[in-house]
Amino acid sequence: MMQHLKTGMLSILLGAVAMPAFAADPESCKVVRMAEPGWNDLAFTTGISLTLLKALGYEPQSSLLGIDVIYLSLKNKDLDVFLGYWDPAMVSYYKPYKDDGSVEDVVTNLKGAKYTFAVPVYVWEAGVKDFADLQKFPDQFEKKLYGIEPGSNQLMIDATKDPALGLAGWEVVESSEQGMLAEVQRHARDKAFIVFQGWAPHPMNTALDIRYLTGGDKFYGPDFGAATVSTQVRKGYLQECPNVAKLLSNLTFDIDFENKGMGYLMTDGLSPEDAAMKALVGEPQRLDAWLDGVSSFDGKPGRDVVKAKLFP
């Protein structure tokens, strides 16, 4: 009898040792709903997230939406995750959702970013070095400022309404990141004046000879719109899906890594997930930190599962 008891206890102990070290998320967490506004930096980082989540056995989805729609969708629980809160550029978008608690911060996923008005170097050398200089050259600029997707240019619009800048009657031309940069390249070929939304990380900083304008602290913050980028989720998501939450809290980037990844999108023409895979092949050591304490959806150690899936 004692021998049977010992044998039974040993089986239980061995079974406990064989159990996964991490608990899987509930079935309701398998589909992870994400969105990004069509910016290449966020397309790339979202592509990284999609790649990792799929390898872990989740079923992530990503939608292309305007910033205002993303926040409303998070509040209404139609989305789960957004990797692209630029602070301070998007403070006005986030504020009502921060105030009512419907959208929550997870982690600062990028430091050292910047975001403000930019001009080609020849425009800067002609005397446009500050926001206040724009009003001196209305004809050359055709009273136009070039932005990106509709819903993402509120700070530029706010600047046109500031009496001190003398931009009353100027038009903010909204299109897309790609459309804006195509206009910059077209103007540059003709040495024509253009002012546009510029930011880093982005390959525009190496592909184009541009300068950032001073004088935009009121709108974009100091140091040329020095910014951080954060990951955000809908209210309650971190508690409902703790394993995805752990991955999101680990998932941080740097300027050089994002510049490379965005180059794969813009220069090589890769899809976000293909760009993510190329970046991971180049720097697989990043998986160790990203997947620390993360499990696959079925409860296995995430680091081992992802490495086996991505690098068979």
TrEMBL record:
InterPro entries: ABC_choline_sub-bd, ABC_Gly_betaine_transp_sub-bd. GO terms for cellular component: ATP-binding cassette (ABC) transporter complex; periplasmic space. Residues 31-279 form the ABC-type glycine betaine transport system substrate-binding domain. GO terms for biological process: choline transport. Keywords: Plasmid, Signal. Pfam families: OpuAC. GO terms for molecular function: choline binding; transmembrane transporter activity. CDD domains: PBP2_ChoX. Residues 1-23 form the signal peptide. This is Choline ABC transporter substrate-binding protein. It comes from Rhizobium sullae (Rhizobium hedysari). The lineage of its organism: Bacteria, Pseudomonadati, Pseudomonadota, Alphaproteobacteria, Hyphomicrobiales. The gene is choX.
